[in-house]
Design a protein that fits this description.
The complex is a heterotetramer of chains A (286), B (384), C (287) and D (272). Chain A is mainly alpha-helical. In chain A, 74% of the residues lie in helices and 0% in strands. Chain B is of the alpha/beta class. Chain D is an alpha/beta fold. In chain D, 39% of the residues lie in helices and 22% in strands. In chain D, strands 6-7-8-3-9-10 form a six-stranded mixed sheet, with helices on both faces. Chain D has a four-stranded antiparallel sheet with strand order 2-1-4-5, with helices on one face. In chain D, α3 crosses α5. The relative contact order of chain D is 0.17. The chains are: A mainly alpha (286), B alpha/beta (384), C mainly alpha (287), D alpha/beta (272). The interface between A and C is large, with 43 and 47 residues.
């Protein structure tokens, strides 16, 4: 049974991470190519605190705050940059994070951090907590979509300038999205550390940032159910595709391309096309 | 009982290949994690070929206690994030009786704790990180650790009568362990480390580094890396007019290194575990069998994977196919005559063996010397 | 003298960056697409160069065919992947391009094997000893010379010939250009062809300098070229050339003196982010 | 919401100059707008009307001089701060939010008290009040029948009225209209101008930037005329238009031609 539990936990952590990016890219329209950095910050914070004797649950808030703090700093920097430079700037932040962490002996440098103490919840307990966190973040996402914050995010994603003329403090909303998204990424990082019991700088590099972005885009940018399904599927794809073995990255890259080429709206886009929801009177897309 | 390699004729090997594919007999499952994709795919291929050869040879001789050995292979891309699910699956779903690592330290360290908790012996081929054997008593390693090889490299510098050394280290756990060993032994051997530089795994262009090393004008260069970065590094060092000896390690140990560095590779020394000119029957047989099976030259990765699988199989022979603690003790107690030397495990399940120094002479690795300093090359023991 | 050597090495590296980044800038200037898969053409060029050179024994033929194959590869990518996505938001083409890039790296590994390939007898390896104890491979000098000459020819083409002006017009105002009877499709094809051929050409040079082509050789250039085109001011050819050479030199000094703080690839991005904070529109672009 | 003392002007433009590199788009212009005014800001192409409006709304910071709203200086304030202080703008190039319905577009503007900060927006979910406000504003501009439709299928006339409704939903003290009649045929222009006049009569101060002199003369009580960045006329429409300097600037000396006054070119807006 351990294998299934470990798989479900991996899924739950991936869903948490994808939903956290969905807040930034899905709701607010800001493309981030360096989101794994914030998971990394949460992961390293939890690892260092864990090894210093902190109980697992106590490391969660600290991981979130640290990741959120850097998220706001990156958010402030990204406000100064033109839209198409934002993607590359966040990518740059990703490389800086990996480049710096690798050099710090205190963070285990190239050898990474290992022998992280056990979370003490037992395999099933840990999985249950991870699933609980997923449900919480999903509920938060749906709530935000229903709230005025969600509507403002939608407006910013579509046309920032018009929102400014409607009196919206666009930079502050972007920062709010960055803060929420990055702190939740930090949370998923803490779970990642205790699930894998070994972390290295390259586990939070460019490939991971692209993977999580693909999950959001695959599910359908901004669509909470879509992102949850896509994250759950894509996170275990490599394990399931073991039978394909040699070709799994080929399949992964190919799927990404085909989805973007034929249904940029992702799975949610496909679903909307086949079972169109009622015309837009109430809130926006579910 | 010493493990001796029987003579193989072409016919037996062919028969073995036919037999092992038909799962007529009950299967003894051996897990094998190896990087088939990603940056380490090249080493992964050699490791897999070495492991398959050992399994085929064993099955050709009737397997173990009437059962065939089935190699259950998982691609871990040499990263921890892939190794954990693979290891968990080997333990839970495939119920492997023993596991072997043909991968790098990152993934092997992550898998080690899973096999230790499941009480499944895990024989590690060429991953050299110290934490692996510290994970517990079910962990075994058939190659010498990074620090030991680093100390061996320092001894070689002393044997060459050189003092002023420049260290160029590939930035991963392999490179850093080697550098640590070298730094530890250098003062004792009167070696003066002039300067140390680091470079990243994906680097292939070393223009700036080479210029700086030239300005240090050392007497010898101790540079760690794998064939895909050491090859270009050595050729660029020579192209810039640096003629001092260059000492590499088992990462260079592949024909690809000679192919890439071309004429610049002549005279490069490496500390490794596979001696191409060995007179040992085990090594000679392995080199011949490997070339027959893959028509390519064997490298250190293939040799150590072959050895790790053979050690696991030898343990299974003693326990009649039973795993767990019995297998652990059987493996720990054995002594093995393998292509990479005579192996005896100490209480930390590390091996103490000599270091083979090879030199590239007219496009091939040839024997240069052997370093066997029992004190300097002693692996760590449990007490440490 | 060390400083001179570092600058020289920086310019050699910068020339390769320039060849790769130039194609990216042409494409971005035209279509506002971050064409990450551009680096797959760099790898493709490397492989074709080695295969042709080993088979035919002539390096020049290797360069020519590699550039042609990469060029047509680029045009095919444009027609199949990007043309239909032009109307979609920018992240769609970006993700499609990244998917294409990951798939291409794996395809190279499956087709050409994981071990990578080398020249049977690599040419241009003779050593030239210049003043101040400088010593370079012939190939290292020629990569700078060929880059300079190609960019010179391109600049002349862009300024003097009809096609060149048509390309520039399409970059600044596609609708206006179209109204003057310039076929957008043809101009975009030409740009993709030239940009991709340059990347293929650079691939062969790197294959020659390292005497090694491998499936993942495109991953570092793929993101570093993105940093360069942003530094150079997106779409500006001279800006990209200057940014590429500057980055090459900064990296050369950075690996030596910043080595223990930042690893080499992070230096490029540290430099990028620093510049963007001061000049959000990039180093060389007009605001 | 009325400003404290009746004699302080609602909007004061004091000696505002705006320079782009060598070009002086607005050169030392001053004028006041009092509560309840319907002021027409006119001038031939390239007069600097749009730059003046941009300086008031905050898209452009004046090189010299300052702008006051209800006695408070706006210098250095970003656009959204000025909007929150009671100013609102209906843009010339209409930009509805296409992901939502016409009613939701207006409701978003009506929720300005809730969306003032991300936290307040997070804590508020209900849209009833805002949808109701949207209904009234849409009725006020005469397109309530299309409330639940998507903006992307509407003709320009409806979209212009949507812009107006959105601006009104912000409950502004001062409404800036940037060429609302541009691109409309004469009946639509007349109808929209009449609606603008009615809204002004209901007590809302309006500054109207417009080329359609016929309608401007009909509904505005006061005119400010700009030419080459300078103010060349300020006062009652009849008097101002009779002034030879204004006529010369507009017509190059001959009589006021209806056609010329009607036509305008988009070049002007691009150059400013």
């Amino acid at each position: 049974m351990n294998y299934e539990i470990s798989l479900i936990t991996t899924m739950a952590i991936a869903v948490m991470f994808a939903l956290s990016l969905n807040l930034i890219t899905g709701f607010c329209g800001q493309i981030s190519l360096g989101h794994a950095t914030f998971q990394g910050i949460g992961a390293y914070a939890a690892a260092m605190l864990g090894k210093a004797g902190w109980p697992f649950l106590a490391t969660l808030p600290v991981s979130m705050v640290l990741a959120g703090l850097l998220g706001v700093i990156v958010g402030l920097a990204s406000l100064r940059v033109r839209a198409d430079f934002l993607a590359i700037t966040t990518m740059g932040v990703g490389f800086l994070f990996v480049g710096i962490v690798r050099q710090q002996e205190s963070l285990g440098g190239e050898l990474g951090v290992s022998s992280i103490p056990d979370h003490g919840l037992g395999r099933v307990g840990f999985m249950a907590l991870a699933l609980l966190m997923c449900a919480g973040i999903a509920a938060l996402s749906v709530y935000i979509k229903r709230s005025w914050m969600g509507r403002v995010f939608n407006g910013i994603a579509e046309d920032e300038d018009t929102m400014r003329v409607l009196g919206i403090d666009v930079p502050r909303y972007k920062l709010a999205a960055f803060a929420m998204g990055t702190s939740l990424a930090g949370l998923s990082g803490a779970f990642y550390t205790y699930h894998l019991t070994f972390i290295g700088a390259e586990s939070f590099g460019f490939v991971e940032s692209i993977t999580v972005l693909s999950m959001v885009v695959f599910g359908g940018i901004g669509s909470v159910p879509g992102v949850i399904i896509a994250a759950a599927l894509l996170s275990v794809l490599p394990a399931w595709f073991q039978v394909i073995g040699d070709y799994k990255l080929l399949v992964y890259g190919g799927l990404l391309f085909v989805m973007m080429r034929f249904s940029p709206g992702g799975m949610a886009g496909l679903a909307a096309r086949f079972f169109p929801t009622t015309p837009l009177v109430k809130g926006g897309k579910p | 009982m010493k493990f001796r390699t029987a003579r193989f004729s072409l016919m037996t090997v062919a028969a073995a290949v036919a037999l092992s594919t038909s799962p007529a007999w009950a299967q003894l499952k051996m897990g094998f994690n190896v990087p088939l994709t990603g940056f380490a795919a090249a080493d992964g291929k050699s490791a897999l070929d070495g492991a398959k050869l050992a399994v085929e040879q064993a099955n050709a001789k009737g397997g173990v206690a009437g059962q065939k050995i089935e190699l259950v292979v998982y691609d871990d891309q040499a990263v921890a994030k892939e190794a954990v699910p693979s290891a968990t699956k080997m333990v839970d779903r495939d119920k492997v009786v023993v596991a072997v690592s043909g991968s790098y330290s990152g993934s092997t360290r992550a898998a080690a704790s899973i096999f230790q908790n499941a009480k499944i012996p895990y024989v590690v081929a060429y991953a050299i990180h110290p934490d692996i054997t510290l994970a517990g008593d079910y962990m075994f390693r058939v190659s010498s650790m990074g620090e030991v090889q680093g100390r061996g490299g320092a001894k070689l510098v002393q044997n060459l009568g050189k003092k002023r050394t420049v260290l160029i280290t590939v930035k991963n756990d392999f490179g850093q362990a080697l550098a640590a060993g070298f730094r530890d032994a250098a003062p004792k051997l009167g070696i003066n480390i002039v300067n140390e530089y680091e470079y990243a795994m994906p680097d292939r262009q070393f223009g700036a580094l080479v210029s700086k090393v030239k300005s240090d004008n050392p007497e010898v260069i101790y540079a760690s890396g794998y064939f895909f970065n050491a090859g270009p590094l050595v050729s660029q060092l020579r192209a810039a007019g640096i003629t001092v000896p260059i000492i590499g390690q088992e990462g260079y140990d592949s024909d690809k290194f000679i192919e890439i560095a071309g004429p610049a590779s002549e005279g490069t020394l490496i500390t490794t575990s596979l001696d191409r000119d060995s007179t040992e029957p085990a090594t000679r047989a392995f080199l011949a069998d490997y070339r027959k099976a893959t028509n390519a030259g064997a490298d250190m990765v293939a040799a150590s994977s072959y050895t790790a699988v053979s050690v696991a199989i030898e343990g299974l022979r003693k326990t009649g196919g039973k795993g767990g603690a019995a297998l652990r003790d059987a493996i720990a107690a054995g002594s093995y005559d393998t292509p990479i030397g005579k192996l005896v495990f100490n209480d930390l399940n590390e091996v103490k063996k000599d270091i083979q120094v090879q030199i590239v002479k007219d496009k091939a690795f040839r024997r240069h010397s052997v370093i066997s300093d029992p004190v300097l090359l002693a692996p760590p023991t449990k007490a440490k | 003298m060390l400083a001179i050597e570092l600058v020289a090495q920086g310019l050699i590296q910068g020339s390769i960056y320039a060849l790769v980044a130039l194609g990216l800038t042409l494409v971005y200037g035209l279509l506002r697409i971050l064409h990450v898969a551009h680096a797959a053409l760099f790898t493709l060029g490397g492989y074709v160069g080695v295969l042709v050179c080993n088979a035919s024994g002539s390096l020049a033929l290797g360069f020519l065919i590699a550039a042609l194959v990469a060029g047509f590869g680029g045009v095919a990518m444009f027609r199949l992947a990007y043309q239909p996505l032009l109307s979609k938001p920018p992240y769609v083409a970006l993700i499609a391009s990244i998917g294409l890039f990951i798939a291409s790296e794996e395809a190279f590994r499956i087709i050409f094997g994981a071990q990578g390939m080398s020249f049977t007898n690599p040419a241009l390896q003779q050593q030239l000893v210049l003043g101040w104890g400088l010593q370079f491979k012939l190939a290292e000098i020629l990569v700078m010379v060929s880059t300079a000459s190609i960019i010179g020819v391109l600049a002349w083409l862009q300024a003097r010939t009809r096609i060149g002006i048509a390309c520039q017009a399409t970059v600044s105002d596609p609708q206006m250009a179209q109204s003057f009877g310039i076929s957008l499709l043809k101009v975009r094809d030409i740009n993709f062809f030239v940009g991709s051929a340059l990347a293929g050409f650079a691939g062969v040079w790197v294959a020659l300098l390292n005497n090694l082509v491998e499936p993942t050789m495109g991953s570092v250039p793929s993101y570093k070229a993105l940093a360069i085109i942003v530094l150079g001011g997106l779409g500006s050819v001279p800006g990209t050339l200057a940014a590429a050479l500057l980055l090459g030199v900064i990296e050369a000094f950075g690996t030596i003196y910043l080595g223990d703080i930042l690893d080499r690839n992070a230096i490029a991005f540290a430099f990028l982010i620093a510049v963007l904070m001061v000049r959000p529109q990039g180093l060389f672009a007009r605001s | 919401m009325n400003h404290p003392t009746s004699n302080t002007p609602l909007l004061q433009v004091n000696g505002v100059t705006v320079r782009f590199g060598g070009l002086t788009a607005v050169d030392d212009v001053s004028f006041d707008v009092h509560q309840g005014d319907l002021l027409g800001l006119i001038g031939p192409n390239g007069a600097g009307k749009t730059t003046m409006m941009r300086a008031i709304i905050g898209v452009v910071q004046p090189t010299v001089g300052s702008v006051f709203l209800g006695g408070e200086s706006l210098n250095g304030l970003p656009i959204h701060k000025r909007i929150q202080k009671g100013m609102s703008l209906s843009q010339q190039l209409v930009r509805p939010l296409r992901d939502m319905s016409i009613q939701e577009n207006v409701a978003l503007a009506a929720a300005s008290d809730k969306t003032i900060s991300p936290l307040r927006a997070f804590l508020n979910v209900s849209t009833d009040r805002e949808l109701a406000v949207a209904q009234t504003e849409l009725a006020r501009v005469g397109i309530v029948s299309m409330a639940s439709q998507s903006p992307s299928i509407q003709p320009l006339g409806v979209l212009k009225r949507l812009e107006l409704a959105r601006a009104l939903a912000l409950k502004p003290r001062l409404l800036l209209l940037d060429e609302p009649l541009a691109g409309l045929n004469s009946q639509e222009a007349r109808a929209l101008a009449t609606t603008i006049a009615e809204i002004n009569q209901q007590g809302l101060t309006i500054v109207l930037i417009e080329h359609n002199l016929g309608e401007v003369m009909r509904i505005c009580q006061r005119l400010v005329v700009l030419d080459n960045g300078k103010k060349i006329g300020d006062g009652d429409p009849r008097v101002v238009m009779a002034d030879p300097v204004v006529r010369a600037a507009y017509l190059g000396g001959d009589a006021l031609g209806a056609s010329e006054a009607q036509g305008h070119s988009t070049l002007e807006t691009q150059r400013a």
